[in-house]
Structures are given as C-alpha cells and as structure tokens.
Amino acid sequence: MPDPSPAAAVPTPAGPAASVRVVVADDQAVVRAGLRAVLAAAPDIDVVGEAVDGAGAVELAESLRPDVVLMDVRMPGTDGIEGTRRIRALRDPRIKVLVVTTFDLDRHVYDALRAGASGFVLKDVEPEDLHVAVRTVHAGHELFAPSVTRRLVGSFVPADPAPDPGPAGTLTEREREVLALVAAGLSNAEIADRLVLGGTTVKTHVSNLLTKLGLRDRVQLVVFAYEQGLVGAAGDGGG
C-alpha cells in the first residue's frame, strides 16, 4: 500500500453499526500495516484512516471523527504528543487517543497522558490485547494496570508539587479523599469500601471531580493528583 502523506482515509467495507472506527498514526509503513492487519481481525473494529505523523492524525480526526486514534509518540515533524494535544483541542469527547509506545516508563508517554491521551499500549502487544485496549478506551474506561500508571506518573512528575493549588483549592475534603484514592489506583468499588460509601456516591464524586478540575477521565485525575502533591510520588498503595 502506498505511504499516505501526510494522512489518508482508508476505504473499508461497511461494518456493523457498533464498529469502533480507528485512525492509525505511525511514521513507519510496516508498523501501520501490522497494526491495521491486527485490528482488521476484529469484526467490530474498522481502520478508517492512516497518518504518518501527528499533523496527519489531527487532520483525519477532524474530518473523519473516528472513535479512537492509535498514536505513535515518536514521529518526525509533528509528534504524537503535539498531535494528541491538538486532537483534544477539537473538544470532541468521542475521540479517544491511545498511545502506542516501545517503553512503558517513558517521558514521552507521560507527556502524552498530560496532553490528553486515554492510555497506552506497547508495540509488542498481543493482537487480542490490542483489540481489548481499543474497545476499552472507546468505552471510556481505564486501560492499564493502576500500578503501571502510578510508576509512570511517579517517575516523571515534578519533584515539587505546584505551589498554586488552583482548582484543587475548590475541592471538598471528601473530594480530595476520593481523588487521592483514584490516584492510588483504586476502583470505584474499592473506594466505596475504603470510605464506607455507596457506589453511586463515589461515582458522583468522581464525576464532580472531573467537572470541577476540567479533566476528561481518570488518567487525567491521576496526573493531576501527583502534580498537585495530593498523593506521594512513590505511588503508595503498591501494585
């Protein structure tokens, strides 16, 4: 297949109504071909476009409005971090960015999460795990193990918390407790058990946190909590 430059829509057969529409962005043609072949094996996933850099991914995100952009972080020209930032600037909550990387504990991955990526997978991911990752991000759920999230964010967060609490100063004591437990990797059910609250109440607190802080998902809550010094950079809670 000719190398798209910088972005190209990919004609695909009509799939089921519930198909997850994916754009693949990577500067290496062989990687794009491999990812497309893996994704094509899933009956509910359609690759609708390919891009060779972040700028091309943004162009396709704007024109095609895919559900998920599978984004390499290290690309010449506009890299995946800037591409992610521009896609988030489109303010379309339906478009999720899933980073593809070689190393999980990588500054580039951390920066991509800060820019608005919903998660990441390694390039040697098993085919079925990639399918699950795309479906999970599309559904708006957490993607990777909390222990990995904590190690990643804890490795690159600034040593000193932000001196100005900013929106963190508007949080209630209970919201701060919930935020710290989210950052420690606990699920809503685990937070409910820890704080002796109902599951619906915890879900409401998490929703309020996202609204108050202007954040998009739990990944962003984890990054925010670490950067504000609301949870230890060592990621207390283990995993």
Would you write up a description of this structure?
With 239 residues, this protein is of the alpha/beta class. Strands 1-3-2-4-5-6 form a six-stranded mixed β-sheet, sandwiched between helices. The termini are far apart. The C terminus is likely disordered. 46% of the residues lie in helices and 13% in strands.
List keywords for this structure.
239 residues; alpha/beta; 13% strand
User: Strand fraction band?
Assistant: 5-15%
**Chain-averaged pLDDT:** 84
The span between the termini is: 43 Å
> Major sheet: size, sense and barrel closure?
6 strands, mixed
Task: Write a brief structural summary.
With 239 residues, this protein is an alpha/beta fold.
Present the secondary structure layout:
Elements: E1 7-9, E2 20-25, H1 29-40, E3 45-51, H2 54-64, E4 68-72, H3 80-89, E5 96-101, H4 107-115, E6 119-122, H5 127-138, H6 146-156, H7 173-183, H8 188-195, H9 199-213, H10 218-227
Parallel strand pairs: 2-3, 2-4, 4-5, 5-6
Antiparallel strand pairs: 1-3
